[in-house]
Amino acid sequence: MNEVYISGALTGVADGARARVFYELLAEIVTDCGLRPYLPHHATDPIAAPDLDPRSVYEIDRARVTRSALVIAYAGAPSFGVGIEVELAREHGIPVILVAEREQTVSRILLGSPAVVDVVRFTELSGLRLALGDAIAAATKARADLAPDTVVQRFLGSLGAARRLPEAEVTALLRVAEIDGEPAGAIRRAVADGRLFGAGLRDLVGRHALRGAELAAFVLHDVLERSLADIARTLGSEPRAVRRRLQQARSKLQLAPDADLAVIGQWLVTELIAPPTRALQLRLFNSAQGPAADAAVGGSDKAPAADAAVGGSENSSKESYEQGAAQTEDGRQAGLAVEEGEPRA
After folding, report:
1. Are the beta carbons of 179 and 196 closer than 8 angstroms?
2. What is the pLDDT along the chain (345 residues), one digit of tens a residue?
């Protein structure tokens, strides 16, 4: 993970707008260092997301802290949240860089945290850019020097927390996402069965702000690999409408509207730490086994998976379905996973 969590006070801040601009500056410095910043006020801000209940805010922010490579905490204003996030970082072996104005007094207990690897004091923003950039480079280099076994063990340990999600939080997230009925039931089962990690649902609702039919279409199609026709029945809609919602969701996630399902599966694994989808497993299997495996599952990588997934031609969808029917059960299900379910008009 190369994500950097930007921690700073959001609640009860005298000049909230100015504070958010400052956090955006910290994020810009992180980006200049070649890393990806995460700004909580884009997802759990008390002003931008007032309907998000406190438990969901805690779970979302906790998940982002514990999966980050580095935490940059602004300590120039007292904040319970910043203190909690620094302690979460300490529990998970994540380094913390404190940032504060030179004249500001910082709590000694915060300065004494074993997680804190550097304290950047500044008077001018130009000086902050240089000093923080150097501190980030030093902290990330030290982390890169960790023994591989240590990194692997930490990653494996994080998977359990990423997968589990209390039922109450699932309910809260679905309420925020404005999903109920059968679509909500399908997403609940996906989390319970481990096909959608809890941390992934938090990200889709919190970080990426997917709502309603967009969230349902993305999870049911790209995570659970159900056909557009089946999803349309679940949502009480039309396949074309579902396709539009799916394209809108992918656009918000910065994915191509017509992306191959194996590409989507790779994104799920890397961005949401989710289990690999059937389509991704099939792609990896094909890559490892070569042409013989391609023939066994009904074609090479050039088969019309992307076309069938969203907006493919009528002929390619029919051919994919017919080939899938003649394959083994696993191969048949993988074929159906990229099937629209009915030809386009």
Report:
1. no
2. 588 999 988 776 677 678 888 999 999 999 999 999 988 877 777 776 777 788 888 888 888 898 899 999 999 888 898 999 999 999 888 999 999 999 888 989 899 998 999 999 999 888 899 999 999 998 888 766 655 555 555 555 556 666 777 888 889 999 999 999 999 999 999 888 888 888 888 889 988 899 999 999 999 999 888 999 999 999 999 999 999 999 999 999 889 988 888 888 888 877 766 666 777 677 666 655 554 444 433 333 333 343 344 444 334 443 443 444 344 334 434 443 444 444 333
Q: At what angle do helices 181-193 and 228-235 cross, to 10 degrees?
A: 120
Please report the DSSP string for 176-192 in residue order.
HTT--HHHHHHHHHHHH
The first and second tokens of residue 149, run together, are: 């076994």
Q: pTM of the entire structure?
A: 0.45
**Which residues neighbour 143 within 8 Å (Cβ) at sequence distance 6 or greater?**
69, 70, 95
**Tokens 């150097």 — which residue?**
134
Four-residue CA torsion sign, 234, 235, 238, 240: negative
* Nearest CA-CA partner of 277 in 137, 152, 285: 285
Residue extent(s) of CATH 3.40.50.450 domains in the chain: 3-145
Rounded CA-CA distance 165/203 in Å is 13
Q: Which residues pair with 122 in a beta bridge?
A: 101
Structure tokens that stand for 229 in this block: 């026709």
Nearest to 291, CA basis, from 283, 279, 299, 280: 299
Q: Is 231 exposed, middle or buried (0-12, 13-18, 19+ CB in 10 A)?
A: buried
CATH of domain 3-145: 3.40.50.450
